[in-house]
Write a structure and sequence with these properties.
The chain is of the alpha+beta class and 122 residues long. It contains three helices and three strands. The chain has a three-stranded antiparallel β-sheet.
């Protein structure tokens, strides 16, 4: 599963931006609670990895680990980080968006076709 992005992306800026998400924050700008009212979540890791495909094309992989996720949180986070990669936002803008708690400030959701749930831990 993958989401193809045709234009070049600044992977380093995306890495810096993703680090603004690590920690316990109110993620209301990135999703809605699946149950209850709390939008506070703890992101333990949020990292981009770069790999090369068989034809030497660059493939970016985003891995995020948290104590729980909001509805569409990962898709909205990835969509926002893609805006950073395109140069539409700076890495620091991600912290500002996070603090705003306003869903309208974050980027559009990334398509679900590129997502893969790797594990659920208790």
């Amino acid at each position: 599963y993958a989401h193809h992005v045709a234009e070049p992306l600044d992977a380093q800026a995306m890495r810096w931006a993703s680090q603004r998400l690590v920690g316990t924050h109110d993620f209301a700008a990135f999703g809605k609670p699946t149950q209850g009212d709390s939008t506070i979540r703890e992101v333990k890791a949020a990292e981009w990895f770069e790999k090369r495909s068989a034809d030497e094309k660059s493939i970016l992989i985003f891995e995020i680990t948290a104590n729980a996720f909001l509805y569409r949180m990962v898709r909205n986070v990835v969509g926002t980080l893609l805006r950073v990669g395109r140069g539409e936002l700076s890495p620091d803008d991600v912290a500002t968006i996070l603090g705003s708690r306003d869903r309208a400030e974050a980027g559009p959701p990334a398509p679900a076709c590129g997502l893969c749930l790797v594990a659920v831990e208790y």
